[in-house]
Amino acid sequence: MKIILLVSRILLLIVAIFSYFWGNRDKYKSYKKSSYLESIGYIFFIIGTLAGIASVMLDVTRHCELIFTLSITIGFLLIYIYLLQEKGVLIKKLSYDSLTKIYTRDKALKILQNMKKHNSKENCNLSIMFLDLDQFKLYNDMFGHLQGDLILYEVAKYLKYHCRKNDIIARYGGDEFIIILPNTSSDEALKIKHRLQNNITNYNWPHDIDLSLSIGISAYPDDSVDIEKLLQLADKRMYLDKQKIN
């Protein structure tokens, strides 16, 4: 029994040390610092396992077992808190576009699905806007991709400034954006569309370029109750709007 207990605690120590170095292997390659919370958690964990080994080998059970139990418990708690923080960081990375700092396409579609469920119960409406930057490829080719990225970032800032607080703004892909307008009819969405298109010429853009937006709108439930059809319709109307502008 004593041998089994000793072997199990030695294995626990090996697993703790291996887990720490394996989990941080990428940080060592890129010279990034490990989380203090994670490091302290593993230190407590290792101290606890060493105390557990000592209690078996030296027969000083009372004090070492207490250190073993407390250290392992504290270590587990600290590592668990660290993992929760890392999970939060990962969720944030998956939810926000790294360039524009607004929602990603996937996050926006999840929000849209939840809104649809809520609106069907409450008998509310909502509108969807598809937006595309006109002649963006020309600007990208003229000033380079870094400046093109800067324009996309500024467009996201512009949209956040001119939209309402509860509107959901996301980068759909490339130079396309989507705005979900809760509790908004198609007529109200049309007013917002005109405001976005009219004010964009007064914005202070890099290199003093002239930007314009093509925007398509679809409304729930007037146009459809199916999310996919609403997105397709807004996309189609956006391209029709682009043809008018060009």
Automatic annotation (TrEMBL):
Q: Its Gene Ontology molecular function terms?
A: diguanylate cyclase activity
Q: What is this protein called?
A: GGDEF domain-containing protein
Q: Which UniProt keywords apply?
A: Membrane, Transmembrane, Transmembrane helix
- Source organism superkingdom: Bacteria
Checking PROSITE patterns in the record gives: GGDEF
Q: Which InterPro entries match?
A: Diguanylate_Cyclase, GGDEF_dom, Nucleotide_cyclase, Rev_trsase/Diguanyl_cyclase
Q: Residue ranges of the GGDEF domain?
A: 124-246
Write out the transmembrane intervals. Answer: 6-23, 35-54, 66-84
**GO cellular component: a single term:** plasma membrane
Q: Which biological process terms from the Gene Ontology are attached to this UniProt entry?
A: cell adhesion involved in single-species biofilm formation; negative regulation of bacterial-type flagellum-dependent cell motility
- Give the species: Candidatus Syntrophocurvum alkaliphilum
Top-down, what is the taxonomic lineage of the species of origin?
A: Bacteria, Bacillati, Bacillota, Clostridia, Eubacteriales
CDD domains found in the cross-reference section: GGDEF
Q: Which Pfam families match?
A: GGDEF
